[in-house]
Amino acid sequence: MKKKMFIAVILIMTLLLNACAANPKNSASDSSTPADSDESAYYETGEDYESYLDIEENNEQYTDENSMLTFSLKVDTASYSNVARYIENGSLPPADAVRTEELINYFSYDGEIERKNGPFAVSTEIGSSPFDENKYMAFIRVKTEEIDTEELPPSNLTFLIDTSGSMDSYDKLPLLKESFALLVENMDEDDRISIVTYAGSSAVVLDSADGTDKDRILTAINRLEASGSTAGADGILTAYKLAEKNYMENGNNRIILATDGDFNVGISDLDGLNSLISEKRDGGVYLSVLGFGTGNLKDDTMETLSANGNGNYLYIHSVADAQKGLVDELGSSLYTVADDVKAQVEFNSDIVKNYRLVGYENRQMSNKDFSDDTKDAGEIGAGTDVVAMFELELNEGGGDDNLFEVRIRYKDPGETESRLFTTPAYYSDISAETSQDFGFACAVAGFGHILRDSDYIGDLTLNQVMGMAANNLGQDNGGYRRNFLELLERYRKIVTY
After folding, report:
1. CA–CA distance, 210 with 222 (Å, rounded to integer)
2. 187/334: higher pLDDT
3. Which of 43, 105, 312, 387 is the most exposed place for a label (fewest CB within 10 A)?
4. Helix or strand run (H / E) with residue 449
5. What is the CATH number of domain 149-334?
């Protein structure tokens, strides 16, 4: 009898283990189970899985039905670094990991633009579409003024560092320490650094250290170890309290959250985190997110936090990523010059038959929200290039009339009332000879379409994308365009293997 009971127990245990292995997302013991969200998609990567917000590609819009489109003008570059991580590791990214506008906006562009409106300069360029020879591509570039590092305002930075067990990997906490070390080296006597950690609970490790006290700051960072669960919401609340206590008038008050996004204690669903951050964002403290890691990356959580925290989102997979985002592009990453930036483009239905916005699927807004100053939108930093691209089909006949009008609405930091400026684009602006900026942006957009298996890819091939990129390298400060060519070659090897 005992023998039969023993065998029965073994069979039950075996069935339970097999069920967990077959469906790890439903395993009660799996600490990396993501927050439930109808807007997220989960992708298994070995023993773990990553989660991304669903992206439904923008369709053509016919101007006789809807001639106007509004979207939040926000610059994140996390998607490019994440896509590169997949390809460099010999695999293809899931489609929802590819946010085409972030691929395009990863790069800076060379052409000089005359500044006419507040912190912005705007240019439009129109040439042939790489996807359809019968259509055109509009390349709209919004540029903020470069600010010398020595002229940047003082910073009150609160490093909010995930030290939970999920961060115990070579590409997480160790890389995080190297990344923050690069940032700390650029701080001076006017800056203040605080450190909050969270695992099962949160703790204040450092409170408002002088930016020149680098040994003390780096020692505190280097002593951190990973263990325990992930009470991210508790850490966020503690970081906000500390940032508010040390608040600098006319300074850069910012929390920098460094994590893999895997929250599993306290508030962990996207709606709850959204509400938590939204309540805090009007206090003048920005929230930026640095994403780390492979296998259980919760990209959806980090994108949501940065969007609702008036900050930006960078993915760090190498020291080179940290150098680019936290040193070379320090101003654009961490120093905001315009809040709640919205773009609205209205097309002339007499000339433009239809249009399609490339990317920005998760940034679109209702047209009526454009003039509503209570509606949150994107933040833009110093020296930032923001690019939006539209594919256009024109009616027969054309004419030397207004093709479309670009409207930008923004607030000066700390202000509640927005400012507006407009820039027109004309039929006569269409050119057969386009700039290298235009050509390179088209190459990157083309690669995004290939990665997403877009319905609008047309006859564009990888070889054509590589040719466009190679012929439009421009000044290429930092070598990022050449690195893109190397990434395309790696991709070619994967898909032809």
Report:
1. 17
2. 187
3. 43
4. helix 436-451
5. 3.40.50.410
